């Protein structure tokens, strides 16, 4: 696996590219919930992600589909039956998200520890 060398602030940076795909407010929760089941319907996702509007759910799912992370399966029935699932590319992202989650848990714990420490014991910022 490569390591960031040189350009980590421009168009050629893989980290910035990845964050441009998944870094919006609603995309991570959607990816997480899609991971939990083989297929998920639109209204089920809407219930699982508090505060998301129909417009933002549709936009986020379309962008994730366009990036090859989500598969949209529409069946020609009345009413229409649409299910979403992660593609192999979407599933491949999960180990990195799990690592990021673990890192975030540790940072939150360290932040709580620092907040409870006497001022003289806190690291300088």
Word description of this protein:
With 125 residues, the chain is mainly alpha-helical. It has a single domain (15-117), classed as Orthogonal Bundle (Arc Repressor Mutant, subunit A). Helix content is 54%, strand content 11%. The chain contains 5 helices and 3 strands. The chain has helices at residues 14-22, 27-36, 42-48, 54-66, 88-116, and strands at 40-41, 70-75, 81-86. Strands 1-3-2 form a 3-stranded antiparallel β-sheet. The longest helix has 29 residues, at 88-116. The radius of gyration is 19 Å and the shape is globular. The mean pLDDT is 87. Pfam families: HxlR. Keywords: DNA-binding, Transcription, Transcription regulation. InterPro entries: HTH_HxlR, WH-like_DNA-bd_sf, WH_DNA-bd_sf.
CATH architecture: Orthogonal Bundle
What count of helical segments does DSSP give?
Answer: 5
Question: How much helix, percentage-wise, in residues?
Answer: 40-55%
State the domain count.
1
Strand content: 5-15%
Write down the CATH class: Mainly Alpha
Read across the widest sheet, the strand sequence of neighbours is: 1-3-2
**Biggest beta-sheet profile:** 3 strands, antiparallel
Structural class designation: mainly alpha
* Tally of DSSP β-strands: 3
Radius of gyration: 19 Å
And the CATH topology?
Arc Repressor Mutant, subunit A
H and E order: HHEHHEEH
Which residues sit in consecutive blocks of at least 5 with pLDDT less than 50? none
What's the name of the CATH homologous superfamily? Winged helix-like DNA-binding domain superfamily/Winged helix DNA-binding domain
What spatial form do the alpha-carbon principal axes imply? globular
What is the overall pLDDT average?
87
Cα distance spanning the termini: 32 Å
